[in-house]
Design brief:
single chain; about 475 residues; Serine Threonine Protein Phosphatase 5, Tetratricopeptide repeat; three-stranded antiparallel beta sheet; 22 helices
């Protein structure tokens, strides 16, 4: 029917189906990328999307990867202990991994390959479980939340958080909702839409039922839960919390090591990059981003983060060139605009930086990072009164809701107010802002480097590294 020109929704209507799976295949320099979309037939709404990345030599792995991901999205996977009606766990991976966007791809589970099961057959047991009270509603709520939270709109993210919490309440075995909720909390903390303390607390409470020990200590050497590959990214997320919230580097390293087998995916690569940058391991972050860009050259966020990593590493010319390239490839995208406007302003291209930052601020009115970046670009351009007015507005907003503090010190340095800049950095340290350690390496704050309080802040990271060296990752 698709060959006759019918859309996925029309095919679904013809077959009297509830959902229709569609997508397209793109050839990249060394990989195939498959974008698969699940369409709700009733109204044509896209309820979730998966991006699969597989080496050209392993094209046959696309089908197996798609079935694995679909099975996870349909909750056909491991459930927390105590849910005896859940299906048996999948067979262990074969060990032959290929790059992907979210999960380690295997050659499909042996029993599925042997039987030649279709996607419909894989979903069959799930359909039966959905008929039980609460589960159908839980999955429907999860579908909507999964689609809506992957945006930079503050209110949509917060609505999705409520939906994911409700889906978990209705069906505690819905691991996919727990994974989404964890990454949503990380994303909101990074974007400045949720305080680090609230995000960390909610993440730990969300994963607690999956753990075999209290989440406050399991990373430090407790029993490691046996989770499906699709859920193992929560190890890195909790490691990220251990680093930024608890200042426990040894536990953070353990969390990231437990997820080291996972291939590139937007959330896991972002966590790995931010972890390396926060530790001031710039070569490691740059190598990771360049290697990932070789796999996925059309990701605006990867281009933007590489420019930021080069900026933090003090490679001004390279960061400026990377910013220009990203902006040219993806004009108007947040991923290149956020970092690009900072780097352009720092390197003297202030008019273009103001234009980019102002566009971001207008399109994302609740994205306070863009507002602070706009103030920085104005300050660099000599429009100091306007920059101060924006800072004053952010200060007033901070009395009503959480406002991320780490991006305003650079504005204050550009305005010559070093004491105020140190005060904002101190606030960032006190609330454990996820950008704090990166800002300590930001060349824009170089005028503060000789101040004793700035050196004291840097010593926090030095002590963490020393403590981690004395307490290496537990074996096993």
């Amino acid at each position: 029917m698709a060959q006759r020109g019918l859309t996925a929704q029309q095919v679904g209507e013809t077959l009297h189906a509830d959902l229709a799976l569609t997508g397209n295949l793109h050839l990249l320099p060394s990989h195939f990328r498959l974008r698969a979309e699940m369409i709700r037939v009733a109204d044509g709404a896209q309820i979730w999307v998966e991006d699969l990345l597989v080496e050209q030599s392993r094209a046959t792995g696309l089908e197996s990867e798609l079935v694995d991901r679909l099975a996870f999205r349909l909750n056909f996977g491991l459930a927390p202990a105590g849910h005896g009606d859940s299906p048996p766990p999948p067979a262990p991976p074969t060990g032959r991994e290929v790059p992907g966007d979210r999960f380690p791809a295997t050659d499909l589970l042996p029993d599925r390959n042997a039987a030649g099961l279709s996607i419909q057959a894989v979903a069959g047991p799930f359909v039966e479980r959905r008929k039980r009270p609460g589960r159908k509603d839980a999955y429907g709520i999860y579908q909507q939340a999964h689609h809506d939270w992957q945006t930079m709109q503050r209110h949509r993210m917060q609505d999705s958080l409520q939906r994911l919490s409700r889906a978990i309440e209705l069906d505690p075995s819905l691991i996919a909702a727990r994974v989404d909720l964890v990454h949503l909390c990380v994303t909101q903390a990074i974007y400045g839409f949720m305080s680090p303390a609230v995000a960390a607390d909610l993440m730990r409470r969300t994963v607690e039922p999956l753990m075999q020990a209290p989440s406050s200590g399991w990373l430090a050497g407790g029993a490691i839960p046996d989770l499906p590959p699709a859920a193992q990214s929560i190890f890195a997320a909790l490691g990220w919390v251990s680093f930024h919230r608890d200042y426990n580097l040894a536990e953070a390293i353990r969390g990231f090591s437990l997820s080291a087998n996972l291939p590139h995916d937007p959330e896991i690569t972002r966590l790995r990059t931010m972890f390396a940058l926060s530790r001031h391991r710039f070569d490691e972050a740059i190598g990771l981003l360049r290697g990932t860009l070789h796999q996925d050259p059309y990701s605006p966020w990867l281009h933007g983060r590489l420019a930021w990593a080069l900026h933090l590493a003090g490679q001004a010319a390279e960061s400026l060139e990377q910013s220009r390239q990203g902006i040219a490839l993806f004009p108007g995208h947040e991923g290149t605009g956020v970092f690009g406007s900072i780097i352009l302003a720092f390197n003297g291209e202030t008019a273009r930086a103001i234009e980019l930052a102002q566009d971001l601020e207008q399109r994302l009115p609740y994205f306070d990072i863009a507002t602070a970046i706009h103030a920085y670009a104005l300050a660099c351009h000599g429009r100091t009164d306007e920059a101060r007015a924006i800072l004053e507005r952010l200060l007033w907003l901070g009395r009503e809701r959480y406002v991320i503090p780490s991006f305003t010190p650079a504005v204050l340095v550009a305005l010559g107010d070093h004491d105020a800049a140190l005060s904002r950095l101190r606030i960032a340290a006190d609330i454990r802002c996820p950008w704090f350690f990166q800002m300590l390496a930001d060349p824009r704050l170089k005028p503060l480097h000789g101040h004793p309080e700035f050196k004291q802040m840097l010593s926090i990271l030095t002590r963490m590294e020393a403590d981690a060296a004395q307490n290496p990752e537990p074996k096993g």
